[in-house]
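User: Sequence in, structure out. Go.
Assistant: Echoing your sequence, followed by the structure tokens.
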Amino acid sequence: MSKRRPTLAMILSCIVFLVTCLTGHTRAVEPAYQTEVWLEGRTLVWAHPGQGGQIDDPNNWATVSGDAVTTPPDRNTDIVLPAAEQLYIVKGGRVDQVRHVTIENLALLTGSHRNEVEIWGNCWVKAGGYVKYVSIRGDKHTFFRLDKGVFPTSDNGLKYMHPSRRVPFEKQCRSQISHKFQVCKYGTASVEMIGNIGASDEVMLQHGKMIISGDFRFSGVTGKGAFEIYDGGILELQSGARIAPFDPSNRKCVYNMDIYRNGVIQAGSPERPLTEDAYLLLGFAENDKSGRTGLYSAVGSMIRVYSEDPTRARLVISSTSSVADFYTGLGDLVGNPTQKAEGNKGIAMQLAGDIQLDGVVFDYVSLGGMSLADPNVIQQWQHVTYGPHCAATPDKLVSPLTVNANAYYHDRGADQASEYALTVTAMKNMADYLEQADPFALRTEPANTQTAAIGKGKQIQVPVAVMFEESIHVTIHSKVPGARIRYTTDGSEPTKESPQYTDPITLDKTTKILVKAYKPGMGFSPTYSTTYVFK
């Protein structure tokens, strides 16, 4: 008799149970993935536990009842890699798509470097299971969970692996899920990252929302990988979460983290505010060039904090040095909480976006390390404090912006054109998918983006923000006649309680608009978002 495999309902029930056990209560507002509804799909089980093979070979799969199959997994297929007594590897590439994924002890699902297996549903990597070189896609709220993951330390001897520089399997760190990690969701659909998870190079949040509720780290081997939030991307740090680059110096890159136009970093959300501190950590280094380390926020980007109590549940922006047991992706100690910023050594930020803060702690900031397009914006911040490791008093931490405030994608070297092409490809695939899946095709006018050429020979075409000087009237369009359109301007998801669009919306300050459409018989559109920038 075949062994029964976990269904999606079973998986979600376990998640809710674990949250209850660990915290003593469930969250006041459910994570989005717990509210998602999935259509019935088929489930395939790896037919040869302990023996590897190709994901696209139907001979390697069986139904839950043990029957043979004739077609390999696809976007609507859930897959289970059962536990085994010896390691086995299931290999795939970018053309391979799956829905829900369950990976058990000594099973490994892997793509290869830039040929990532696409996961369109939930992914649960159980203790002893492995996943590498995958990317996240889809138009549903999902979770990506890795059980009992650890990061490299000098004691455990584990390392993050570069695809071209292998390390023995027994030394590979399970928390490394990819090299260049891509998230491209549709609308504001989200993936919630649960556990200790990291990438060995950069992270490209190409669209949609990536929620960190555990500990997420990047640039684990290369020392040059940034976390880049592109047009329509939202990085959300939830209560108790932490995100950081492994490498503290970031000498090979422009910034640790980049938020481009229409991108957002937020701590909490209007629907799910912080109940405890969340941590955004940056590299601690000599800032011999403007923005060598830290955070870049372009014109048209946003940073927000949504907290139940901004005096107690805050966004803490600090250094990787602040964590005593913080190590690089190769297991070298970084953490040194006694270290204090001094002169140009510390964290540095270049902030040109719409920065509205209520409940933030800054620490380990270098002299002049907070470069602002408008230094007066600090007067509007609320519940902002400064830690004891800053290089000077708050007034001496502020400096004028010294970089291009409207950059979209930083040209960082000869290989960057091909890396940006990954995002271009992902966005094109998203547009192609929406042509079939989203008949509403929401859009706004006037145009709020123009094109700029960057890179050697100006070979890379990127969007940058149009900056308006006078008030404008924004119209919203849909291809579906009679569609009912709701919108918000406060960062929250549109609901039936949100204002209904009937006439053009007048704007006179930088505003992010979120839009959702509905029509009986057709259902709801994905949430469309865009930002209008004013000087």
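User: And one key feature?
Assistant: The mean pLDDT is 91.
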